[in-house]
Write a structure and sequence with these properties.
A hairpin with a 4-residue loop joins β2 and β3. This protein is of the alpha+beta class. The chain is built from four helices and five strands, in the order βββαααββα. Helices cover 34% and strands 26% of the residues. The longest helix is centred in the middle third of the chain and has 16 residues. The radius of gyration is 14 Å and the shape is globular. Strands 1, 2, 3, 4 and 5 form a five-stranded antiparallel sheet that branches. The chain starts with a strand and ends with a helix.
């Protein structure tokens, strides 16, 4: 059975004034099942190369929060205990922080985990 899903690319914007971003992850949401998951890059060498002043520890904390919110872990804060739909909307809302997401896009897949991995390979993996 094919499932409709929505996804967003997780981006790091180290210097907003330059309007540059680095794709570092993917979030996939399947409304019909409540599936919500993120896959975040563990290697942030490109961020370090393009913006050596970046506090990588703080960045990793922010990226881990994305994963925790997707997983619905209470450690992720108040948003993490809300519905999957709310969490996806929260994560993809426009913001002016270093960690942002692209606009949302749609697709169809039989397995949302496969979609997550394929999107990660297409937009994030180097």
């Amino acid at each position: 059975m094919m499932l409709d899903y929505r996804y967003a690319i997780v981006r790091v914007v180290p210097r907003a004034e330059r309007d540059e971003c680095i794709n570092v992850g993917i979030i996939v949401f399947v409304p019909s099942s409540g599936y919500l998951a993120a896959r975040i890059a563990t290697n942030l060498d490109l961020v370090r190369a393009l913006a050596p002043q970046t506090d990588l520890a703080a960045l990793r904390t922010s990226l881990t929060a994305v994963e925790l919110i997707c997983a619905g872990s209470r450690v992720g804060g108040p948003a993490a205990v809300e519905s999957a739909s709310f969490r996806f909307g929260h994560l993809t809302a426009p913001r002016s922080t270093m960690v942002r997401t692209s606009g949302t896009h749609g697709g169809i897949a039989e397995d949302p985990d496969d979609a997550l991995n394929e999107l990660y390979a297409r937009y994030v993996a180097r």
